[in-house]
Amino acid sequence: QQIHKTTAATPANFPCGSTATKKHIRHAFRHSSDARTTIEDFQQSNSLHSMFAKAFGTTPAHESTQNKEAAEPLDPSPVLDFLSHLGVTRHEVHSRVASSLRSAIEDEIQRMPISALTTTSPDGGGAAKSSSTTPGEAGHRALLNLLKSAWQFRDVPELRPVLVCVLKRLGDHTPVQMLRRLGTKKSETTGLKNAELVSQLGPHLQRLVWEADWDAKLELVTKRSDGGQAAGSEEELMLRGSTILADLVRSSVDAYVTDAVLAQKADLSFVGTVSERRFATKLRRVGAKDSEATGNAGESISTLASIGVTKASNTANIKDEKSTPSSAVAVASIKETIGSRPKLLGAVLDMLIAEHATKGGGLGHMKTLSNAEKKKILREGSTVLGGATNLSCSLVADVLLSFGQLPRSYEVLDIMTRILDASVQSGSISDNAIAQIQGCLRTIFRPSQSDQAQTIQSPSKDRAEGTKIKLSLKTAKSPTTMFPDLPVDDSEFERKLLQRVIKKAIASMKEHDPQGLFLNPVTDAIAPGYSSIIETPMCIRTMEEKMLSSAYKSIDGYKDDTLLLFSNCCKYNVGPAGQWFRNEAGRQKKIWKEQILAEAKTRLKAEMTKRKNALKRKPKPPPPLAFAPNKTEKAASSAATTGSRTKEVKDDAAIINLTAQDVKPLPPWKYKRRKVEIEVPSMQCLASMLLADPFVVRVLADRIQKVLRVDVLKVKNVPGGHPVLPSIFQLLNIARISTQLCALKGKRCYIPDAGIRKVLMDGEDFSPSYESTRNCLPLFSKLLLDADLDRRMSIGGDLHDAALQDILTRPEIQSKEWEGSSSLYDIRAVVEGSLVHLLQPGNTNEVALQNQFPRFVAALDKLSGGNMLNERPFFMSLTHALLRYKSKLPHSTRDLVTGCMIKWLKMEENVSPKTVMCSSLHECFIYLLNEWSLLGNLVLPRDLFLSLGEEAVAASSRGEVGQKNEIFAKLWTGDDDCFVAVKEQYTRMLSSTPDARALQWKEKIGIHDPTPASPEKDEMQVDS
Question: How far apart are CA 249 and CA 301, in angstroms?
Answer without folding.
Answer: 10
